[in-house]
Amino acid sequence: MKIVRNWIILIAVLTGIAAALFISGKQHKVFIDNKKVGEYAAIDVSYSINGEKAKNIKVNKKAMVYVKGPKHKLIIEFKDDTGKDVILENEFKLTPTEDATIYLPLLINGEEDWIKPNN
Amino acid sequence: MNNIKTMLKNAGWPRIIITLFLLSMYVVSPFIGINLKSALGDTLVRFGMNAILVLSLVPMIQSGTGLNFGMPLGVEAGLLGAVISIEMGLGGFMGFAGAIIISIPFAVLFGWLYGHILNKVKGGEMMIATYIGFSSVAIMCIMWLVLPFKSQDMIWAYGGEGLRTTISVESHWHKILDKVLHMPNDMLPLGEMVFFAILAFGMWIFFRSRTGYAMKAVGTNDKFAKATGINIDKIRVKSVVMSTVLAAVGIIVYQQSFGFVQLYLAPFYMAFPAIAAILIGGASVNKVTIVNVVVGTFLFQGILTMTPSVVNNIIQTDMSETIRIIVSNGMILYALTRKEGAGSGK
Amino acid sequence: MENKIKKFLINNVVPIFMVIIILLSIPISGLSIEYLIQEIILRLSRNLFLVLSLLIPIIAGMGLNFGIVLGAMAGQIALIFITDWNVVGLQGFFLAVIITLPIAALMGYVGGIVLNRAKGREMITSMILGFFINGVYQLLVLYGMGKVIPIKNEAILLSRGHGIRNAIDLKNIRRALDDGITFNIGQYSIPVLTILAIVLLCLFIVWFRKTKLGQDMRAIGQDIEVSKSSGIAVDRTRILAIVISTILAGIGQLIFLQNIGTMNTYNSHEQIGMFAIAALLIGGATVSKASIPNALSGVVLFHTMFVLAPRAGKELIGSAQIGEYFRVFISYGIIALVLILHQWRREKEKEAERKRILEMNSNQAGGN
Amino acid sequence: MDKVLLKIEGLSKSFGENVVLKDINLEVKPGEIIGLVGENGAGKSTLMKAIFGMPVISETGGYGGKIIFNGEETNFKSPFDALAVGIGMVHQEFSLIPGFKANENIVLNRESTANSFLEGFFGERIRRIDSKNIEERADNAISQLGIEIDPNTVINEMPVAHKQFTEIAREIEREKTKLLVLDEPTAVLTEEEAKVLLETMRRLSEKGISIIFITHRLDEIMDVCDTVVVLRDGLLINAVNTKDTNVNQITEWMIGRKMGESEEKTETLDDNKEIILSIKNFWVDMPGEMVKGLNLNIKKGEILGLGGMAGQGKIGIANGVMGLYDASGKVIFKGETIKLNDPNEPLEKGIFFVSEDRKGVGLLLESSIEENIAYPAMQIQGKFFKKRFGGLFNLADEEAMKENAQDYIKKLEIRCMSEKQKVQELSGGNQQKVCLAKAFTMDPEVLFVSEPTRGIDVGAKKLVLDTLKEYNLTKGTTIIITSSEIEELRSICDRIAIINEGKVAGILPPTADILEFGKMMVGVSKEGNNE
Q1: For B77, which of B50, B107, C44, D125 could close a Cys bridge (C-beta 3.0–4.6 Å)?
Q2: Backbone torsion region of residue D334, taken as left when φ is above 0, otherwise alpha when ψ lies between -120 and 50, otherwise beta
Q3: Nearest CA of chain B to the CA of D436: how many Å?
Q4: CB contact, 8 Å: A38 with chain C?
Q5: Residue ranges of chain D assigned to CATH 3.40.50.300
Q6: Best residue in C208, C230, C243 to probe D by mutation, most D CBs within 10 Å?
Q7: Neighbouring chains of B at 3+ CB pairs within 8 Å?
Q8: How many angstroms separate the CA atoms of C45 and C69, rounded?
Q9: Are A68 and C99 a contacting pair at CB < 8 A?
Q10: Cβ separation D128–C211 shorter than 8 A
Q11: Measured between CB atoms, which of C85, C99, C101 is closest to A26?
């Protein structure tokens, strides 16, 4: 009986680990959209996800990156109206099954809903 | 009632399932737009192609040497005969007969060696036979590359080394057995059937000779055979040689019907469908009759030809290869795991 | 003394033969030693786990378990799933391990039951079982996946909408384990995690042989009837041996494939049993006796030959193809040879034993 | 000493209609050594199987009566139940793992183990073997036997005696073992080794372990046992203190006097007859029936009986001469030396053998009667063949086979539906007749017949023996009959050789006193001349 109980525990633990692995290892597609949204115009931006090397994205372009796991850090760098360099650090979370799009113009202008799931 | 029960028990459920399955396919086929006549014709053509290869298993089973998983060895001898015959430029029936005649000394030699090895490993024949067959295929692959063949029909037109992987016998002896009988009939492979009947009759005669009786005794009870003064090892070698020679002849008949000589890796798994066929026909690891050969080949080839067309028509997917794998290996597995067949090739 | 040397030579004829072939072909091939060493490290980490998975059934007297392809298929099914789910990196690898476990255990259980019905001819049966399950696997993967079993990732599905493609790019977990931690010795890079996994398995085997279960397996391997009469649950123990072997083979296949980086859905597993067995036998193992050093040296010898043969063939006869076929021949030929030697030796030993007893008795009688 | 360890009350057992044990009553006291003797088939082994709970017993309907062990009535389903309460048994065939060390064998499946955290998942079998403890236990067990064996020797490399001791050590290593059954333990030992074993048995009995000792060597019984129990034909004839009896008396009990059953043959052949077959310094490696340096002359035209206890080698002689088991020595047939180990040689010279193993060696069970009868003649003499297809093929002459078979079916009264019937469907007696027909078809000069009446009913027995006698009279064929039943041999043989320990213990005329036979069989009278 003890053995059965232990196996149940073991299976539960393994299932838990599997779930954790699934969540933390799941690869997501994240689009970075630099097109005009509503009244917000787009500008050239340099971005970096999870500390990777920064990349530039021009106006009206869309980039795609693969990220692994649920929690991510996004750093963007751009020149504001005044020509001053601005660095914005943001975090975002993804549920295990979703892919997402980041709308840079929204982010730059401080809107809340700068990231939307794709599906 | 009891009779039917024992009959069913003797036949074994896989055989019954396969027979019913095949029957049901023949019944169903007209309703889903398959031409029953041509389907049956297909089955018969393939029967003619394969029957001798299946027949070649009989001597070894009879002598208790087990299922001949080393059949590729005989097949290679047949291939040698075929390519040498083409190289010599023999055509028509002469080419076919030449191929057989040339292949026989090779087959006898191979079989003799193979038989002696199998005598050293009584009880473990099947596994070792399998790997002897595999190794012979690999070594012959090297031979096809190295042997100095010149015939334009067989070497690569440009580039490449050695012989082609498939050699057409169109201009040599394609369907020669039918042509000889002046019956180039697509429906009924009469030539092959007559040839098979001759060989099967030869086999029947053989098992009524002194050596044939001795072979049966060795297979059914080796202690009895020993006490009767039979030289068991010698008889076993004889049976292996016979099987190997028949396999060589079998592959040549197969090729003349198929139209191509397939070299290199083609003979690798030749043994498995033949073995599956004879088992479906009701043979066991150490017991077989010619009826088993005929019934088994027909059922097995029937399944192979009918399932793809029927399944294709129903679910639009070609599953023939998968079904072939499952049926043939499932059948062999069933035979190996049966308690009463526990003689392990003894 | 002379007798001892002779015995050693006879017992190790296969490895000695291989060493000679390799020593001869190194200069012919023109490959550098450095290249060879790097290649051997690569192949050790790729194959050793699989080869080690063969050991436990040998202890239990079930011979060479050609049924490890069952485990390999379990591993591949797991890989299809994680590729479909897009779980990447080490997480992907370990998730695949967890998924493999139950599938491989189930397959091993089935295999064990089948082999219990075929005592005395386990090897041929396990080989045919492998072919048979391969058919079932095809049915499942080629026709079931995408239809009965939901698969979303179009990159791995055939264009007809169901069935898995012939080749799957495993970029999600390519070298995940190998490159997890690496360590450089001189110019050679060592895949630490993979080696660690292999070392752990070796430790497991060493420990396992010393458990009660391991002892029972050894007993069964030597004499089934005696074991039965002393109350050991023979059939159950044999099933366990196959289950363990199959699970290990499943993990071994994962290690193998993450290293290769692509998976031939319908072929990758087919040759696994044969190559692993050939490697083990080349290391000097027999059907009834195999050790970790056999596995290790076998992988080194076999794969050195594997690397060398085509090159040597090319340099020697101007045909890489010949070398290629030669190594196929060696793989099959070695298995055939070892099986023959084993069976033959067993007969000889039985004979010698009988002679000994007879002589002993006649001596006694003479003494009276 | 009035405590009783094992008590058997009114035990009876039958296999089908065949009663093997009738109303056996027996008591074994703690520390007592009981010698169990009896002829083959007297019921010794069945009695032991019943005590030890062998599945054969319960599968064939169990036994009648009671077996009470240690005050409790038992009904073991399997030997494991018997082991659990403290009955150990050492069988004739060793039950040891060949590649294991002595100590590993002594504790086989009872190994000492150490805890493991994995136990919670995989049960007790995942525990680690405690080899140190095992060695101690093995040492301890061996020391109780009063002998010296290195517990680290692998069984394979041990002499037979040590294997025997290892087995005994294993049985007494069980804490509970109170009763030890030793089945012919001295059969494979030399005299010296046997003495050590007897000494060991005494030591064990002093420790309070009771022993049931089965042997056919009566002097050993006299030497070591407290009580001797004699079985005959399933009946317990007597159970007495060894002190109160002697070898002659025991032999008499064992053999019994069966009067008036058979007409005793009176005329004896004159001694000057020509010797047709001479066997010299003959060794046969037949497991369980070893022949060890035997000398024997067989005279032309006689019926020679070979008797003796099972396992003494009488069966091995014919098998050795016929080349079925490895043999060495010299066999001279009509002045010619016969090549040994080649079954074809004696067959071609005109010697034939009807095997004791009817189903295994004698017959092709799945073939027809006619084929079975014709087989040897076809293979050895090329009989029953006929040219066919214009002389092209030499094929079996089924007509001739059929006629021959029908002939013998009539002559030997083989009860069958037709000559085409498979022999496996026939009864034992009729199968035996087929074997004889096979032999007669060969028309041999010398015929070996082993255990011709084993397992067949009374009517068939008589017919088989009469047939052999008649064949000998009409054709003058020399016949050598091997049988466990002395009475049977006495009824038809001209001379009877008793085989003991692989040698001829002596040759007696059929008219000799039955006691003489008995003594030779149990190896008491050593004066028997080795011819």
Answers
A1: B107
A2: left
A3: 14
A4: no
A5: 6-86+176-255, 259-350+444-531
A6: C230
A7: C, D
A8: 19
A9: no
A10: yes
A11: C85
Rounded to an integer, what distance in angstroms lies between the CA atom of residue D529 and that of residue D531? 6
B231 touches D at CB < 8 Å: yes
Min Cα distance A73 → chain D (Å) is 42
> In 10 A of CB B151, how many CB atoms?
14
Interface list for chain D against chain C, based on CB atoms closer than 8 Å: 79-80, 83, 95-100, 104, 108-109, 111, 113, 116, 122, 124-129, 131, 159-160, 190-191, 283, 285, 290, 292-293, 326, 502
**List of chain B residues whose C-beta atoms are within 8 Å of the C-beta of residue C132:** 325-326, 329-330, 332-333
What's the DSSP call for residue D362?
A: I
How many alpha carbons lie under 13 Å from residue B186 in its C-beta half-sphere?
4
Paired tokens of D366:
């799945």
For the cut 90, the answer to whether the pLDDT of residue D20 exceeds it is: no
Determine the distance from the C-alpha atom of residue B54 to the mean position of all C-alpha atoms in its chain, rounded to a whole number.
Answer: 3
CATH number of this structure's domain D6-86+176-255, picked from the four choices 3.40.50.280, 3.60.110.10, 3.40.50.300, 3.60.10.10: 3.40.50.300
Tell me whether residue D152 is exposed, middle or buried, using C-beta atoms within 10 angstroms of its C-beta: 0 to 12, 13 to 18, 19 or more: exposed
pLDDT band at B7 (very low <50, low <70, confident <90, very high): low
Residue C17: CB atoms within 10 A of its CB come to 15
What residues does each domain of chain C span?
Answer: 2-367
**C220: which residues sit within 8 A by CB, 6+ positions away?**
C60, C61, C227, C232, C234, C237, C238
* Number of helical H runs and strand E runs in chain D: 18, 24
Q: In this structure, what CATH number is given to the domain that contains residue A52? A: 2.60.40
Total domains in the fold of chain A: 1
The alpha helices in A26-88, defined as continuous H runs, are: none
Q: What is the predicted pLDDT for the residue at B136?
A: 92
Write the single-letter amino acid at C238. R
Topology given in CATH for the domain delimited by C2-367 = ABC transporter involved in vitamin B12 uptake, BtuC (1.10.3470)
Q: What are phi and psi of D372, to 5 degrees?
A: -60, -45
CA distance B173 to C155: 47
**CA nearest A10 in D: which residue?**
D121
Question: Complex ipTM above 0.90?
Answer: no
Print the domain residue range for A60: 28-117
**Chains D and C are touching, with contact defined as 3 or more CB–CB pairs separated by less than 8 Å:** yes
pLDDT at D263 over 70: no
Reported as a single tens digit per residue, the pLDDT across A82-117 is 778 888 888 888 887 778 888 888 888 877 777 888
In a domain, A47, yes or no: yes
Chain D residues closer than 8 Å to A6 by CB: 120-121
Q: Do A2 and D122 touch (CB under 8 A)?
A: no
pLDDT value, residue B155: 79
Cα distance from N-terminal residue to C-terminal residue, chain D: 50
Whether chains C and B touch (3+ CB pairs under 8 A) is answered by: yes
Best of D56, D109, D295 to disrupt the C interface (most C CBs within 10 Å) is D109
**Which class is domain D259-350+444-531?**
alpha beta
**Residue among A17, A18, A68 minimizing CB distance to C88:** A68
